[in-house]
Design goal:
Radius of gyration: 18 Å
Number of strands: 10
Distance between the termini: 40 Å
Strand content: 15-25%
CATH superfamily of the largest domain: Spore Coat Polysaccharide Biosynthesis Protein SpsA, Chain A
Low-confidence stretches: 1-5
């Protein structure tokens, strides 16, 4: 089949919060997609800068862009869930308001999914900052529930899942690790997620999201115990492997 004639709608999920400096570039990277059958659903999480006005101006000239605003600041997971609830597409894709897609991201990934009959996929991605291009993240070729517990190999900005097989799945309402929580939930429905090992997205590293490593590790422990529901013993083993893998990644 010709991908350009595909009738399959892709719903692009974008949370925003004080993203005035970056969101226009993120939206433009969707507008430039070679695959044109998409809707971009943005939920603003009560920004106090000019984010909403920027989105409204762009949406005036492209009906595929839909803006919703939260009544209270609930975090990125809650904003993404609102977008998912409004989505009409067979496919759900994720892009944050400070990251970018390369022009053929949707075309290549949707083709990959349809040809291989895959329902949950991700890709490689490039890190960048105001200082320039950084390293490439090339994830494992496939991953299941148990392997994902030890390391979140899946970049949120690269994920697409197929609601025709999986149904709509939502993120847990937590402030951090919402994406990992969702991937684990999806992997209860499908055996594996599969990687299209090509750089199709750009991950911004200097947008204020960098966190203290000790706080991240502390939250990861709570994630295993309270969100995933692992026993103390299994949490201890999983956490140890997670910390070791994180250390090795930081050394690259």
């Amino acid at each position: 089949m010709s991908i350009y004639n595909s009738s399959e709608l892709v719903s692009v999920i974008m949370p925003s919060y004080n993203s005035a400096e970056t969101i226009e570039a993120s939206i433009n990277s969707v507008l430039k997609q070679s695959y044109s059958n998409w809707e971009l659903i943005i939920t603003d999480d009560l920004s106090i800068d000019n984010t909403v006005n920027i989105v409204r101006e762009i949406a005036k000239v492209d009906h595929r862009i839909k803006l919703y605003t939260s009544l209270e600041n609930g975090g990125a997971g809650k904003a993404r869930n609102n977008c998912i609830s409004k989505a009409n597409g067979r496919f759900i894709a994720f892009l944050d308001a400070d990251d970018l897609w390369l022009p053929k991201k949707l075309e290549k990934q949707i083709t990959f999914m349809l040809e291989k009959n895959y329902y949950f996929t991700y890709t490689a991605y490039q890190k960048f900052s105001s200082k320039g291009i950084a390293g490439v993240i090339s994830p494992v070729q496939e991953i299941n529930y148990n392997k994902l517990l030890f390391s979140n190999e899946i970049g949120c900005l690269t994920v697409i899942y197929d609601t025709s097989e999986i149904g709509k799945k939502y993120m847990p309402l937590i402030r951090k690790r919402q994406d990992m929580g969702l991937w684990l939930e999806i992997l209860k429905s499908v055996n594996k997620a599969y990687c299209l090992d090509e750089v199709l997205a750009m991950y911004r590293t200097d947008s204020g999201m960098t966190q203290n490593k000790l706080k991240v590790l502390s939250y990861q422990w709570e994630f295993y115990r309270k969100i995933v529901g692992l026993s103390f013993f299994r949490s201890s083993i999983t956490f140890f492997v997670y910390a070791c893998k994180g250390y090795m990644k930081s050394r690259k």
